[in-house]
Amino acid sequence: xxxxxxxxxxxxxxxxxxxxxxxxxxxxxxxxxxxxxxxxxxxxxxxxxxxxxxxxxxxxxxxxxxxxxxxxxxxxxxxxxxxxxxxxxxxxxxxxxxxxxxxxxxxxxxxxxxxxxxxxxxxxxxxxxxxxxxx
Length: 135
Ligand code: 9L3
Ligand code: MG
Known about the structure:
- There is one protein chain.
- The chain is of the alpha+beta class and 135 residues long.
- It is built from two helices and eight strands, in the order E-E-E-E-E-H-E-E-E-H.
- The protein has helices spanning 50-62, 122-133; strands spanning 4-5, 8-18, 21-27, 37-38, 41-43, 65-79, 82-93, 102-108.
- Strands 1, 2, 3, 4, 5, 6, 7 and 8 form an eight-stranded mixed sheet that branches.
- The protein starts with a strand and ends with a helix.
- The mean pLDDT is 95.
- It binds ligand 9L3 and magnesium ion.
- The site of ligand 9L3 has 15 residues, from strand 2 and strand 5.
């Protein structure tokens, strides 16, 4: 069971920001998404808030403790019925490592955001993140 929020399955992603750079993660699964880059995150569990889900996903996927910041305005359609919502996240402890669902991580500066092959849905989300982080 996945939490449905106003008829949408919500997937949360974190714009993890540290020392002027944004963390990008390369997916290792499923095969059709492998090799493409994303803001790390995943689906809400039943009864879970978006912020709780974000903290849990970043812990599971990257092995770090984070603190959610602000929601990036907007939401992006993943596929019919599925939407992506993004929050900024501050690194509280740990060093991100590709523990689950990713095989490479990169910290990207503002001028490096175009250097990785983002998932189609993440591209406009990253643009919105950049507009927020580097106004
Ligand atoms: N997805 C797309 N961009 C993202 C994230 C975190 C997720 N930044 C898509 C990939 C999957 C679905 O959402 O189709 C669920 O994500 P996950 O639980 O496999 O990470
Ligand atoms: Mg995930």
